Amino acid sequence: MSDRFEPEILVLYCGRALADHNHLPEGTKQGAGFKVRFVMMPCSSKIETRDLVKLIEQGVEGVLMVPCLENKCQFLVGNVRAEKRMKYARALLDEVGMGADRLSMAQGWNLSSEELMALADERASAVRPLGRNPLKGVKL
Amino acid sequence: MIVAEWKPIPEVVEKLRGHKKVLVVGCATCVAECAAGGEREVETLAPLLRMAMIKDSNPIEVCTNTLERQCEWEFVEGLAPTIMEVDAVVSLACGIGVQALAERFSEVPIYPGVNTTALAIREEPGLWAARCVACGDCVLGETLGLCPIARCAKSILNGPCGGTRDGGKCEIDENIDCIWHLIYERAQARGKVDALLEIKKTKDWSNSDHGGPKRILREDLRL
Amino acid sequence: MSLRVGSRLERVLSEGHFAVTVEVGPPRGPNADAVREKAKLLKGLADAYNVTDNQTAVVRMSSIAGAKILLDEGLEPVMQMTCRDRNRIAIQSDLLGAWAMGIRNCLCISGDHQKASARGKLKGHPGSKKVYDVDSIQLLSIMKGLRDEAVQDGGDSITEPASFFIGAAWTPLGPPQEFRAFRLAKKVAAGADFIQTQAVYDVPKFAAQVEKALEMGLTDKAAILAGIIVPRSANMLKYMNKSVPGVVVPEKAIERMQAASDQRSEGIKITVELINEVRQIPGIKGVHLQAIEAEEMLPDIIEQAGLLPRPEPQQ
Ligand code: SF4
Ligand code: SF4
User: Fold this and answer.
1) ipTM, two decimals
2) Alpha carbon of A64 to those of A56, A107, C172: distances in Å?
3) How high is the mean pLDDT in each 10-residue block of chain C (315 residues)?
4) C146–chain B nearest CA distance, Å
5) Which protein residues touch ligand 1 with a CB less than 6 Å away?
6) Crossing angle (nearest 10°) for helices C203-215 and C177-190
7) Closest residue to atom 2 of ligand 2, CA basis
8) CA–CA separation, C118 vs C126, rounded Å?
9) What CATH number should be reported for the domain holding residue C244?
10) What's the pLDDT score for residue C125?
């Protein structure tokens, strides 16, 4: 098939989750069968439920949040809180029939850019069964 | 504050079928405090409704607004221009706010997006608990500041009942304090147990919802 | 002491007999024969029979109807009345009706909250509207008013008194334990003539609470009947210890039941022993036996406790 479905994944990561701060990935990259956009966030605690929901509304197939490890957060418990909000946002997406799996979270520490890419790949495989985001390209 | 909780989204979606442009209105007072209907929640629900309606094959346009207070006419009036442009409103305010909109803009359907559930306090982050049911005959002066009407499952005035669990919890839920147990403890700490020995007579509930819709008339304040 | 009402239960107690009451749970349906059968099984075993009022908030035949059926079968009922489902208008109206039909004993309790109805296997009615207009102590006062002054709670008189022998419940081991004797005092002051207690398994702890009541002079003013729930298995004892507020089951009793080859007959033995023990406690005037859904165990128990035949009180 020519226009094979390539899910678009958004990876929001905490800088502290990565090993090499000189080579932080940014922007859109092509993965094997998916597109991925990397965005560094100041701290996962800054991401609210409404942000998560809006990101899906904007049309990406999946969002992966990569905070740092539980006891490494610069705001101490930011990532723990983020996890709770993630859980809530997932439930909301389920409630509106979008599928909770469009949102997910994986803690990281000392990750290389390759490892981050591998996480995105995993996410892409997980959302592929959910199909295209029905909001994609919809003018709001 | 008045606390409310989101209705299940499908219940709201059901109401919106057939509409084209919907306004989601929040209130920045009580319901914002209890994280049900402030701006944050309005901006969370709006995208969810858009998604749900697309999934439901009923795409709609959703716009948002959060009033300072949805229960006062001065603030409600501010919606007048926007209301003209939509064909339905989802209000995340308490039942009072919803009715204020419905009264002022009676030509537009107004749907509640929340269930108003209690007069409560934030006990801890993410935990609200009832404190008052507006019984119309406050007894806090006799119960050391702890309300047995709102906080006792049986609203008893001569407690505690026989259902108090170990650890002083209420028979209906092991996570809820038996308020009479707390009243007793406070009385003991203050050397006031004697005050609990007096039999409290049957209560006059008529100055509340039980006496019919409540109306308060203050001649001194009328125009 | 002159009789207030002259019910059989009152007469048995006033003549100084050790009283026996047993509980009869009405059926979850409109079948009068189910009540009559229990009546036949239990006739002659007790001085009066408690008919429960939708216990655990599960819908059953009303206590007022159940009590009337017992009455027709020649058994004296203790009609239980909870505050859960009726406001003060319904309560007083039902009391007048009950008295008109010949019911003379009534036990006032707050009743399990409607949420309890869905706690077991049943759906129940957890969504029902809350009433609790009056509490159990206020209910006692209401009954006292109807009897002693022929006056309603609101102050209006009734044409003639409705005279009940008034009962109350007591949970001596419910927290806060230091307050329980005081609460009993409130019930006695409000009008209670007799008291049926929450189930006793820990006799020393129970006796200590009764002693407080005795010291406060309450045991002279109201007759305390010790409640005993007939245990049928170790699991039942464990459940009650853990989940029924105010019921304390000593570990020893659970172990003993566990070790028994026939838990049912061990349950009978334990009950008989409990009866004999509470009987020794100064201030205890009788027992209130509950064999929930196992009333057929009661004849053996009451017989073996030496409580038969029941006394025939004077008029
Ligand atoms: S006694 Fe009545 S008015 Fe006072 S806090 Fe309780 S419910 Fe509210
Ligand atoms: S356990 Fe305490 S709070 Fe609960 S119903 Fe009884 S008296 Fe009220």
Assistant:
1) 0.96
2) 11, 10, 58
3) 89 97 97 98 98 97 98 98 98 98 98 95 96 98 98 98 98 97 98 98 98 98 98 96 95 96 96 98 98 94 98 87
4) 15
5) B 132-135, 138-140, 147, 149-150
6) 50
7) B178
8) 6
9) 3.20.20.220
10) 97
Residues of chain B contacting residue C190, judged by C-beta atoms under 8 Å apart? 199
Per the domain annotation, does A26 fall within a domain?
yes
Domain of A106, in residue numbers: 8-130
> Any chain B CB within 8 A of the CB of A140?
yes
At A74, the pLDDT band (50, 70, 90 cuts) reads: confident
How many domains are contained in chain A? 1
Rounded Cα distance between A136 and A61, Å, is: 8
**3-state class (DSSP) for residue C105:** strand
What sign results for the dihedral spanned by CA atoms C195, C198, C200, C205?
Answer: negative
State the DSSP string of C38-70. HHHHHTTT-SEEEE-SSGGG---S-HHHHHHHH
Measured CA to CA, the distance from residue B190 to residue B184 in angstroms comes to 10
Does a structural domain hold residue A2?
no
- Which residue intervals of chain B bear CATH 3.40.50.2300? 2-118
Asked if C171 contacts C247 with a C-beta cutoff of 8 angstroms, the reply is no
For residue C57, the one-letter residue type is A
Nearest to B184 among C112, C116, C176 (CB): C176
Q: Position of tokens 């003018």?
A: A139
Question: pTM of the predicted model, to two decimals?
Answer: 0.94
Mark whether B and A touch (3+ CB pairs within 8 Å).
Answer: yes
**Separation in Å, CA of B61 to nearest CA in chain A:** 7
Using a 6 Å cutoff on CB, does residue B178 contact ligand 2?
yes
CATH architecture of B2-118: 3-Layer(aba) Sandwich (3.40)
Q: Which of C66, C63, C46 is nearest to C55 (CA)?
A: C63
CB contact (8 A) between residue B54 and residue A50:
no
The structural domain count of chain C equals 1
Distance CA A140, CA B142 (A): 57
* Interface contact B184-C134, CB threshold 8 A: no
